[in-house]
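Following up on my earlier thread - several people asked me to post the actual chain instead of describing it. Fair enough. Here it is, all 56 residues.
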Amino acid sequence: MTQIQPTTTPKLAEPKVGFTEYAERLNGRAAMLGFAIAVAIEYVTGQGVLTWLGLR
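Reply from S.P.:
Thanks for posting it. Predicted structure:
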């Protein structure tokens, strides 16, 4: 008995909330921006971010 394979992929609507492609892209860009700002703070002040925030 052979399996019948579908010839087309169904077109599903993009969800409005959750792990959407746009949300993940935005989250990655925010993380890159935050990391660059943290490196810039360390470079300008000569201290680590935790010291700058008063946590160390």
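The mean pLDDT is 88. That should answer part of your original question.
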